[in-house]
């Protein structure tokens, strides 16, 4: 099937584009009234994820509303630990929780990687449904959490501010944590490859909590396992390269090491300047980012000025996928997203002449 808009894939390959492509982390979600209506119909968040037609519906809502260059599958990073039997549930105002957190080596040794095709078939059904409905309009992005980020939730039992349980395990029984991360690296590789076979045309690994680690711990407990995944991914499918993007929040100090994994794109949060990142790794990988999501609470003129600043920071040429520096806030007015996209479409072509 021909791809009518391949700007996103071309930018990740650092090939010429007519304007800077854009998508937004969490672009399908609670800031959209149409999402809230579908979520209400679904009954629960996981019921929404497990219903291929409804997951497709919410995946397409932002690309129908805004002039974006990629769709990202609507799902959750915690589908893998849920399939491992940890009992995922959601508490309003607190987020995802697990009924059976893993806190020691004995609990870890009882775990095994799920079979993505069998145990997470609802995700693959959603991927194939979205790909069919997109009908070549734009690429579809699949995703997973990184092993370290999944481990933080599995060991803590939910969100954490200090990561005392998982960091405690890191320092008291590092061998046990390595065993957990090895299982998760195997599971994520299988999961992303299954998404690619089902129709995902690019994949992103969200290392949300990698930035909470020291540099040696990041290298050994986060990056090393993302390297295993990159090495194990399907990189060509349907006659086209399948790019992989690595995004470590608060990981700007490790850009060279992230790019050295062989990933195609490096995601940046808003604390790293694109000009600096391009000078450091622009010859190795494309860059993705990095508007502060809170900028979307500003007036349209302010949003436009921030878009202009970020475009200028990257400079002329390809190799930049415009995105937010983290997920869009649920409180963002949709009309401000419209202003953001309009500003980007107006201002970015001059950087690609």
TrEMBL record:
Site feature location: Transition state stabilizer: 76
Pathway: Porphyrin-containing compound metabolism; protoporphyrin-IX biosynthesis; coproporphyrinogen-III from 5-aminolevulinate: step 4/4
Coiled coil: none
InterPro entries (alphabetical): UROD/MetE-like_sf, Uroporphyrinogen_deCO2ase_HemE, Uroporphyrinogen_deCOase
Molecular function, one GO term: uroporphyrinogen decarboxylase activity
Superkingdom of origin organism: Bacteria
Broad class of the protein's primary localization: cytoplasm
Compartmental location: Cytoplasm
Signal peptide region: none
GO CC entries: cytosol
Gene Ontology BP annotations: protoporphyrinogen IX biosynthetic process from glutamate
UniProt keyword Disulfide bond present: no
Substrates-to-products reaction catalysed: uroporphyrinogen III + 4 H(+) = coproporphyrinogen III + 4 CO2
Function (record text): Catalyzes the decarboxylation of four acetate groups of uroporphyrinogen-III to yield coproporphyrinogen-III.
Family from the record: Belongs to the uroporphyrinogen decarboxylase family.
Protein name as annotated: Uroporphyrinogen decarboxylase
Organism per entry: Kushneria sinocarnis
Organism taxonomic ancestry: Bacteria, Pseudomonadati, Pseudomonadota, Gammaproteobacteria, Oceanospirillales
Underlying gene: hemE
């Amino acid at each position: 099937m021909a791809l009518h808009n391949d700007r996103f894939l071309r930018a990740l390959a650092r090939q010429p584009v007519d304007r800077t492509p854009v998508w937004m982390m969490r672009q399908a979600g609670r800031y959209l009234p149409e999402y809230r209506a579908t979520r209400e119909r679904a009954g629960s968040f996981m019921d929404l994820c497990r219903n291929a037609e409804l997951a497709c519906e919410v995946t397409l809502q932002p690309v129908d509303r805004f002039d974006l260059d990629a769709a990202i599958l609507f799902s959750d990073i915690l589908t893998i630990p849920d399939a491992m039997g940890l009992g995922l549930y959601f508490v309003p105002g607190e987020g995802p929780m697990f009924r059976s957190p893993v806190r020691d080596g004995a609990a870890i040794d009882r775990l095994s990687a799920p079979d993505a095709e069998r145990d997470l078939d609802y995700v693959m059904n959603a991927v194939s449904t979205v790909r069919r409905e997109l009908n070549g309009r734009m690429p579809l992005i699949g995703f997973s959490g990184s092993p370290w980020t999944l481990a933080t939730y599995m060991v803590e039992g939910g969100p954490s501010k200090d990561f005392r349980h998982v960091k405690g395990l890191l320092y008291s029984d590092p061998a046990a944590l390595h065993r957990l991360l090895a299982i998760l690296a195997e599971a994520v590789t299988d999961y992303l490859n299954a998404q690619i076979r089902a129709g995902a045309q690019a994949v992103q690994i969200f290392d949300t909590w990698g930035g909470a680690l020291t540099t040696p711990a990041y290298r050994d407990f986060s990056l090393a396992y993302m390297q295993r995944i990159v090495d194990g991914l399907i990189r060509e499918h349907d006659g086209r390269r399948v790019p992989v993007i690595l995004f470590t929040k608060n990981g700007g100090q490790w850009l060279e090491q992230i790019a050295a994994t062989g990933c195609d794109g490096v995601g940046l949060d808003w604390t790293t300047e694109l000009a600096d990142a391009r000078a450091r790794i622009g010859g190795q990988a494309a860059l993705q980012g990095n508007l502060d999501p809170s900028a979307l609470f500003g007036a349209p003129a302010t949003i436009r000025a921030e878009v202009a600043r970020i475009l200028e920071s990257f400079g002329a040429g390809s190799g930049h996928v415009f995105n937010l520096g983290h997920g869009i806030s649920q409180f963002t007015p949709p009309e401000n997203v419209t202003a953001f996209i309009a500003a980007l479409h107006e201002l970015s072509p001059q950087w690609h002449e």
